[in-house]
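Deviation from plan, reported transparently: coenzyme A complex.
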Amino acid sequence: MDTSQAHGDEDEQRRATRAALMASLQTCKDQACLGGSEKARKLHKSRGQLLPRERIQALLDNGSPFLEIGQLTAAGLYDGVPPGATMVTAAGLVGGRWCMLIVNDPTVKGGTMFGMTTKRHVRAQLFAWQHRLPCITMVQSGGAFLPDLENIFPDDGQGGSIMYNQVKMSSEGIVQIALVFGPSTAGGSYVPALCDEVVIVRNQGAMFLGSPQLVYAATGEVIDVEPLGGAEMHCRISGVTDHLAEDDADALAITRRIVQHLGEPPRLRWTRAAAEPPRHEPGQLNGLARCGAHAGADCREIIARLVDGSRFQEFKQLHGGTLVCGFARIEGFEVGVVAGNGELTAQAAAKGAHFIELCGQRDIALVFLADSPGFAASDRAGQGGVGKHGAKLLNAVANCDVPKLTVVTGHVHGASYHALCGRAFKPNALLMWPGARASASPDAPDHEAGALNWARQLWCDAVVEPGHTREALAQLLDIAGRVPARPTAYGAFRM
Ligand code: COA
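Because the crystal trials were delayed, the predicted structure below was used instead.
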């Protein structure tokens, strides 16, 4: 067989792998967008209520970005629960101000919370906290999904953290607003109770620690929803809620008016240059990205399709070539790009630490493109001090206090994953391309290392199509640039 034929076959195979991958992701995303069963959605609509995504649409500005975090959470993990874990969490613009929306889906298991639902809620809160975004929670939830209590109740990062984060954010002046659309029981009622302002819908919304059925079971007392926790009662008598809405649309309109009175909106701390499309078409990234066993492109090919005018001011181009560093702009935002391009050597690690230090001094956001099989492990590498230089890189990544965005573009393994700002190094957001893999060992099977599993476990925030990455990064930079700059303090560098 001649080589051109071999390449032709490879392309065919690669296209087929990519198409299958994209199709399975799309199916998951469609299921997430649909929510509960047709019967549950019909029942919900018959009560005159909007579906969760309709509520979001009605609250956001026309044409607002919609940055969903954790769309594929728990995909396939719970029987009868579509991807998303009974909740939608997304950042978008309300009256021109970025807000975090945290929205129960009452068409799935009564909007009750599973362990992964609490994790998704907490992740959305942490994103909001880091970026000082007002949290707007749309509540209609039966509280804990009782058979999953052990994953909801005891630990940090679960249900208790939702409440803790609310009050700590509030203590830092981060706005908490709730809309109560339906019966909200137990955990579902604490969330609004801990907010600054609460809107509740007449004849629909209700808040109680135990439902009328629970009260009957516990005390034998028969009591209706309204006197126990109805909208009218909470607005007139208990004062637990602040605004009485006539229906869903009215509640959303009231909320838009609340957001108009949150004081001065935060401004960008950087000057954004005029945006310029890359000279190389970003859509070509879909074909360049790694997929299956096929090798990916040189990271400069990727960078050229992500940055304005495809201009990349490379730093130390002739040194430590397995880590590519340099300055560029994305939709006008200045960024420092740190891209894995092979096994990380001592030189590459030291160069990365040097570059990150420069970005910290200049308050330039960092974009990590993660694709590296690991740190070099040979005796030559050991004698070259890869350990101490790798430590330097980890120190710089962790401590450099500028916004950090990570995109897992390829296959990233072992400590390279951490050094390229993996989840534990707390990037402001972590995105993955559909064909990306991340794991301790390169041998991990796809059902563990693949992007779909990372999204399912909420180890990444979103799986983005390569061709849409530039847009997502620009939106994230716009959010991240609206918090005040903070000084960086590094730990001791090993020299
Ligand atoms: N734990 C586990 N499953 C629950 C649940 C809970 N706390 N609350 C509701 N569900 C399930 C129901 O079994 C049903 O499951 P199915 O779709 O597999 O049949 C589904 O959620 C929908 O519940 P249903 O009562 O049919 O819907 P609804 O819209 O009429 O009412 C609620 C929803 C939440 C108002 C109502 O189910 C309720 O009051 N639940 C009890 C809430 C409670 O007491 N929670 C205390 C938690 S600590």
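The longest strand covers residues 404-413. We consider this an acceptable substitute for the interim report.
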